[in-house]
Amino acid sequence: MSNKKLITNKQLMLRITLTIISLSIIFILLSSVLVKKVALKDLGEDDALKTSELIFEIMNTRMQEGWSKKDLNKIIFKLEHIREGLKIKSYRSEHVAEMFGIPNEDKKMIENDSFIQKAMKGNKEFMILNDGSIRYLYPILVKQECLSCHTNSKIGDINGVLDISYPPSEIKISLDSLSKYFVVFFVLTLFIIIYIFYILININTIIYKSFNCTLLYFRQKKEKIKSSL
What we know:
This protein is an alpha+beta fold. Helices cover 66% and strands 12% of the residues. The protein contains six helices and four strands. The protein has helices at residues 2-64, 69-79, 94-100, 104-112, 114-119, 175-228, and strands spanning 87-92, 125-128, 134-141, 158-166. The protein has a four-stranded antiparallel sheet with strand order 1-4-3-2, sandwiched between helices. Strand 2 and strand 3 form a beta hairpin. Helix 1 packs antiparallel against helix 2 (69-79) and helix 1 runs antiparallel to helix 6 (175-228).
C-alpha cells in the first residue's frame, strides 16, 4: 500500500509540475502579446505626440522665415527620413486657406476624411490601422507668434492638421516604461500560477481522499462479508 501511495504521489506531483510549466508558458506568451498591445496603444500614442510636436516645431521655424507651402513640402520630404516608413502630410484650416489658399488635392482629402475633420476641431486622433501601422492627427493651434502672419486668426484657433503615419516597429519606448509593464505582468502571472497551483493541490487532495474513503468502504464491506460467512 505504501509503495502504491508513493507512486501515486509522484505521479500527482509530476502532473502538477507539468501543468504549472504549461500554464506558465501560456501566460508568458499572453503577457508578451498584451504588453505589445498596451505599448502600441498607450506608449505609441505618447510617442506619436512627441514626434508630431518635433516635426511641427521644425516646420514652424521655417514658416516664420516666410517659407511657402512648396518649400515646406521639401522640408517634409526630408523629415520623412527621420524614421523608416514615416509619412507626413499637412492640411490647412479654413482660416489659413482664406489667406494663402489650399491645394485641390488637400481640400478633397479634408472633405473625404472624417478624422481630419475632427482634428480640425481640435481633437487629437490616434489610430492603429489594419496593417498595424500608426496614424496620428495633430491639430496645430494658433499661438502668439503665429498672429504676425495669420492676422485673421486668434490664439487657440486651429491653423491646420499634421497627419503622420509610421510602422509600429519605429515606436520609441523608454526603458523605464517598458520595464514597468513587464514587472506588472510578471507579478500578475506569478500570482495566477500560484493560485492555480493551490487549486490543483486542493482538487487532487480531495480526489485522493475520496478515493481512499471509497477504497476503505469496499474493504470494510468485504471484511464484513467474510466475517459473516
